[in-house]
Amino acid sequence: VRRELRSRHLVEERLELVREQLLDHFSGSRTAYIGNSVNTVIALLVGWAAAPFALLAFFGVALCLILLWRHLVNRKFLLSIDDKQVFCVARQVNLYAGALSAYWAVLVASLFVMSGPDQQMVLAVLAAGMMSGGIASFRTRGRAARIYLMGIIPGPLIAFLSLNSSAGYMAVGLLASYT
Known about the structure:
Helix 1 packs parallel to helix 4 and helix 2 runs antiparallel to helix 3. The model has no long low-confidence stretch (mean pLDDT 93). The chain is elongated and about 65 Å long. It contains eight helices and no strands. Helix content is 88%, strand content 0%. The chain is mostly helical.
């Protein structure tokens, strides 16, 4: 009986911790929506001259779908009364962290290889900003933060390697030091 009570107590503590982490995570939703949207608009403007319109439209629609997913998960959390729902929401946060990081990785890599040096500089800064912004957004959910970071890194890595220059290799070294 004692062991069962202790086990139940540990589950309740874990549940409360996950609730608090999710509450903190979702409290930054408005900032995340604005930050991702503004950075996407900047990236699309940077790629306007070089990238096909269909690709730019794809990135716009893809971000809308990912942000809609985040909104629906946030809503599910706010309406959750069942303890199992809280853990389900935590798993969903991990999944959309992966989707969002893949989005940024593909956007940065694809636009980078089509762009000139000035646009590449903007995209490199944007990638660094999205790496740090994503980590800040997922800071209370350690697994989601790691998923996001590991998912976004291939984008700038491919972009920097595509330069095939000493500057590109130095940027790869800096990227490695940030992880």
